[in-house]
């Protein structure tokens, strides 16, 4: 995904992360020809970036490999700028997904249907779309970090001509 985005849009600065140093090194080598792409070894539950550093955070078949994936969602929210998007897809808990991970022996905690939405909300993200596809085996999502209210952009008030009272 990063290689294709980096190849097609050289105006976008990309930061790619992976917890596994071998995978991070492989990504660094694979993306070395793209000067606007950097690769860091990083833990998705403790990202080494300042609050509000990114316009978008993506997650492609990664969350279920993070045992505490709720913390990774919170970190995605933390590093997003207001108005930024958290986008991705992942596997949903199913017999098929469990068997795949039993065979490959990778650490995982599959996402149960309906559990992502409240986690997004607790992380301060507004779900734009959460879709289950491929017979419910795959979860696709898009969530936005809200922008703070603008000064003077709060509730509209008016004054009743009859009583002089302020009404919301």
TrEMBL record:
One of its GO terms (biological process) is methylation. It comes from the Bacteria. GO terms for molecular function: S-adenosylmethionine-dependent methyltransferase activity. Keywords: Methyltransferase, Transferase. This is Methyltransferase domain-containing protein. Pfam families: Methyltransf_11. Residues 12-87 form the Methyltransferase type domain. Residues 157-168 have a biased composition (Polar residues). Residues 145-168 are annotated as: Disordered. InterPro entries: Methyltransf_11, SAM-dependent_MTases_sf.
